[in-house]
Amino acid sequence: MKNVIILGGHGDGKVIVSALQDQITFGKHLMIYGFLNDFERKGEKIAGFPVLDKIENARRFLGQKDIYFITALLKVKETHKRSQIIERLRIPHDRYYTLIHPQATVSKSAKIGPGTFVGPHVTIMPDSLIGRHCSLRASANVGHDCVIGNYCYIGPNATLSGRVHLKDGVHIGPNASVLDRLELGSYSIIGMGSVVLKSVSDFTIAFGCPARNYTRLQRDEGDDLLICKESPS
To answer: In the annotation, is 101 catalytic?
Structure first.
């Protein structure tokens, strides 16, 4: 039996709870242990499950060998900051739970990194590589031989054609499509419904049909976290 702690809150956390409950319904031996959250008080509930502590205190649960973690922290324009929060926890990779919804279709030759969520009706084609702490939402399609970095988000109904390369932290909005063999730069953002026909550089927002580079995201030093903000177009 695996006990799963969700790092996050009311948004993506509820999506993760629903998928975990579906796994349990389909016979998976696991239990939702609760949430780590920085905004709700200890003992409050999210999606019916208790807040156990703040995210920064995650390591205190490592002594319980049946505890596993999954992250629900990705947010557009804040992915870089939140990915660093996760890295600073120094939780071993083998203590992250990889959540694949029972209604997803994943090729046997595909590889999926720890802490990644694959939602219902997602299709992952042969020889694709998915990194750590990604979120692939309902009905997304990942073509063959794609390489997806860590902390990437692929929105509902989005489609990656074959051999697309997503570097770390890419956010692809719902219903967007990406042409084969393109590269999307680190922490770039693709707007919903966009059709991407050219590669996109790091820290860039692109949207439209066809998608065009619209503005850059500046990386400002704040404490020791890099915060992304829009620069004037």
So the answer is: no
Q: Other C-beta atoms within 10 Å of 198: how many?
A: 12
CATH number of the 2-95 domain: 3.40.50.20
Bridge-partner residues for 30, per DSSP?
2
Cis status, amide bond into 232, omega within 30 of 0: no
Residues in the chain: 233
pLDDT tens by residue, 137-187 = 999 999 999 999 999 999 999 999 999 999 999 999 999 999 999 999 999
The active-site residue out of 101, 144, 165, 171 is: 144
Superfamily per CATH, domain 99-215 = Hexapeptide repeat proteins (2.160.10.10)
pLDDT value of position 227: 47
Model pTM score: 0.93
